[in-house]
Amino acid sequence: MAMKITVTIITLNEAENISKAIESVEWADEILVIDSESTDATRDLAKRQGARVIVNPWPGFSQQKQFAADAASNEWIFSLDADERVSPELKSSIDELRTKDAAQLADGYRVARRAWYMGRWIRGGGWYPDYQLRFFKRQHGHWGDRIIHESVVMDRGSRVETLGGDLLHYSMRDPLHHRRMIDERYAPLGAAQMDRDGKRTSRLQIAFAGPLAFLRSFVVKGGFRDGQAGYTIARLAAHHASRKHSLLYGLQNQDKAKDR
Fold first, then answer.
1. Quick one: pLDDT band at residue 14, thresholds 50, 70, 90?
2. CA distances for 233 relative to 28, 89, 184, angstroms
3. Binning pLDDT at 50, 70 and 90, where does residue 258 land?
């Protein structure tokens, strides 16, 4: 049986991105957009490009992506974020898979994700290759229950391989947008995830989290290779780490107050 693929995209007010995302996956057998009650033109634009659109109130990242996988018409799922694009090289790798017998296929495939930031493709700072498991048979994988940095969890014994070509990521418009995303989404959700995982912090950790994150990004993970962009990424990584630990400190003190 020929490989049939559904590309799933979750959206909330993604009118700026959705058209280009869909253009990059027009080769799919189905494009399914799960929209979280957008107030802009996201749904209309997606329908105009042939996507099937379902509105589902926001339940969280993992839950919404699992909803999308469950609603897909095909067994093979490629999960794409609205600010991502499938590169021609990655499409070629997928096309090659579609010519193979079912017995030759893995159960899931990782792809390297490359970010565009401050006018250049980022090589260091831990941002590349940033492997993501995005292409999988839905009977062998599901979205794990995480608040942030959600990922596909494959069944025990599943075979996972890596595809050639990059998934192109256009998430941050500029450093100001980057910082706002940290303050409004990544740090609060990261702190909540750490709290749920039972992790704890201290004033000392808050003080050192930022400098250590900067050194890890800029020096250890080679952010210096990206010049000013790499320095900005490292500086904001420091802000993210410090902010996340500060928020976690507040959450754990709330937890202590409840236990009294």
1. very high
2. 34, 27, 17
3. low
Please, what is the Cα angle at 230 between 147 and 237, to 5 degrees? Answer: 35
200 plus 97 within the same structural domain:
no
Q: What is the CATH number of the domain that holds 30?
A: 3.90.550.10
115 and 55 share one domain: yes
What is the domain count for the chain? 2
Are 50 and 90 found together in one domain? Answer: yes
Q: Is the pLDDT of residue 210 over 80?
A: yes
Task: Note the pTM of the prediction, 2 decimals.
Answer: 0.91
Give 69-113 pLDDT, tens digit per residue. Answer: 999 999 999 999 999 999 999 999 999 999 999 889 999 999 999
Spatial separation of the C-alpha atoms in residues 117 and 104, rounded to whole Å: 37
SS3 state of residue 219: helix
Of 122, 117, 131, give the one whose Cα is nearest residue 222: 122
Q: Look up the domain containing 214 and give its range.
A: 175-259
Of 109, 136, 169, the last residue of a domain is 169
Q: By three-state DSSP, how is residue 7 classified?
A: strand
Instruction: Please name the residue that has the structure tokens 């790798």.
Output: 93
**Do 14 and 134 belong together in one domain?**
yes
